[in-house]
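Review box. Two proteins, two foldings.
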Amino acid sequence: MLNKKFITLGFITTATAISLFFSPSLFAATPPKVIQKPVTEASRLEALAKFTKVLSIVEQYNVDDVTLQELIDKSLQGMMTNLDAHSAFMNKKSFESLKVQTDGEFGGLGITVGMKDGALTVIAPLEGTPADKAGLKAEDIILKINDKSTLSMTIDDAVSVMRGEIGTPIDITVVRKSETKPLHFHIIRGKIDIQSVYTKQIDDSILYIRITSFDKKVVEGVKKAINQYKNKDKGIILDLRNNPGGLLDQAVGLVDLFVDKGIIVSQKGRTKTEDKEYDATTAATMTKMPMVVLINGGSASASEIVSGALQDHKRAVLVGTKSFGKGSVQVVLPISEDEAIKLTIARYYLPSGRTIQAVGVTPDIEVNEGVIKTDDNNDFMIKEADLKQHLEKELQKDAGKADKTKEKDKDDKVITKEQMFKDLQLKEAFGIIKALIITKG
């Protein structure tokens, strides 16, 4: 009999995270109701008889000795993985791993992967993890793991191969659009303990909020940041780049902080029982400050819900590149005490009714990653200080200001001009938010 507890991953399993990172999960009281098409008892018995017959033949004549339990598990794996890229049968080992990873601290590489156009693809490396430090990037296609081809691997197979003890090595071979040859990475597995919300200041008037994943602390973290700077800041830059997803309630709650009415996201499944709408509330809204949201190809799932909802409500300007395109809903349904299935039950839709699945969110202003070149060191330019009668007292005042700026630059809570010039997308976002502040008073 089906255990009534189940885990709702929502749009959350942008894919399975590698030892990674598996999106935290919501627990619900009852599983979705199953409404089946009319099937005659005779046809059902005929189908089950065919399955039983094949099992018996394989068990008896297969070249290798395979137990009935192993054959059943393999059958379930094959059935689930052939439904779609995100459905899967979870044996005792993988189900236990899921429950461990929802605690938010684990060992591994720190990347989230998914299937894109049939290829195992990096959705995003998580900030500060071994994969991030090694140089893996969003949209890298993983060709090999320890010299083993990924062509026939499912997401869960890849997770199983990449997961390992802290301190052990692994070799990853990837294809990257900007490179002519495959890239090889030798990575040492590490302990993954993620801080999901980072906040900094830009130019004494802009609150920069970076969200790396949607865990259970996101909404509270953003609330705290807004309250801390609400009498000082005039605009917000929300950075969702390389954010692979997380909890549904946190995504909805985050949008609710900035939008006071209307649909945030809706989901539609095979039956009406899976159809739901999540609405914004006036009571939860904290600020009407102008906003810019940064996204890229590593922004998936919850990140796409947040950015797409803010875009549809005309609440923020989106800057960057098109997001990943993961908008399906998975639930984890236990079938015994230590086994479960992960099943896709619905798709998510933005307030305008557009889908995310396989489409993604297109930014209002497309800006590729890059570095801005400056002419600060141009020795051929004649400046005021080079003139014979320049105003020395004014220069002394400016020097004093510069010294204070240098002191402030040391503060890791401040994004400096130099840091912005190393991030073209952030620099563009800064220019846009300044313009919004001016036009909106």
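Next protein.
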Amino acid sequence: MAASGDQQRVVITGIGLAAPNGNNLTEFRQALLTGRSGVVPFETRYMGPVLAGVCTFDEFRYQKRKDRRRGTRAGSISIYCANEAVQDSGLDWPNVSRDRVGVYLGITEHGNVETENEIFEISKFNYDTSVWTHHHNPRTVANNPAGEVTLNLGITGPHLTIGAACAAGNAGFIQAVQMLRLGEVDLAIAGGVSESIHTFGIFAGFKSQGALAWHEEATRASRPFDLGRRGIVVAEGGAACTVERLPDALARGAKIYAEIVGYAINSDATDFVLPDPTRQSECMRLALGRAGLTADDIDIVSSHATATEQGDIEECQALSRVFGDRPSLAINNTKSFIGHAMGAAGALELLGNVPSFGDSTAHPTINLDDPDPRCALPQIVANTPRRLERCEHILNNSFGMLGINSVVVVRKVPQSLGGVY
């Protein structure tokens, strides 16, 4: 059993996810190891054919059709992932004190889908607002995805949807850790979610910036670190975990995927869009310091790189400043498989790497055929998985617009404490 001082230690005990190339951790991990992309051709209003990472989970496994009609795609993703995480956790859910459960889900944007859809509909009726749905307001409030989870699972504790641009998936985990350490909740459902492919505005916005990817072969469109990169592939998805204090997990004999040992969030304060490698490297160092680790302790870095030229280059500069050229480090990228899942990206990318604690293998970055010399870090795992001599710590980068940076560090838990490896 853990000592009383271990109340500050926080662990992941259940995982639920929906990714463009997998509807649970096993499927997702297998896709990452075998190079299976989830990027497909997609039609969006006013723009026609684009490419996107599209999820195919069963929306009605945990949700009635009536509730889905009233709710949102982001809510349905969140409900699916949260229920999968609770089931995976082995919690005796009927006897869990729901007032001591918190829901913390990161999101990039919310409400655009519903607003675009409603304006399109009333345009057919000469913009008569009497045909505007009375469900619009609860669909578009910022707390909607986490709130839909509380309605579905009967949770009466706090819920927050955390707006942190594309750093939001990590931010969901960070909020959960803080609330558990403060004793505000005894159990958290945490992660990130995105419905971004269902708003044409995000595609149009990236296209107007010259940052929307296109490729004749959809699965080859997302190309971080590659000279042939053409920009971002927009994706939807979600990931939610049950997160608990270590003594609580041990007391019920839970399986434990990882311990969250360090985190950090900071701001560039330099530009609306362009990243700052100095602030990114500072964020990584702050997370390492909070974890009581050095750069040499990290075995895998899950990179944020979105396949935009400056973003890729500047993250590589930041990584080089923190980690140097240590050859035993593995750096990989998940967006090459699924595109950029925005608010869900950080959570999905972290969880796709967690099984490395068991199989000692780093999944690759695919579509890396002609490495950009400015991104040619020797540790990048290109196209095929890499076997690791050691896998004890993973660092997950997640950065977003308006200069928000987030980093989460997780540690392997020994089998004697319930580690599943």
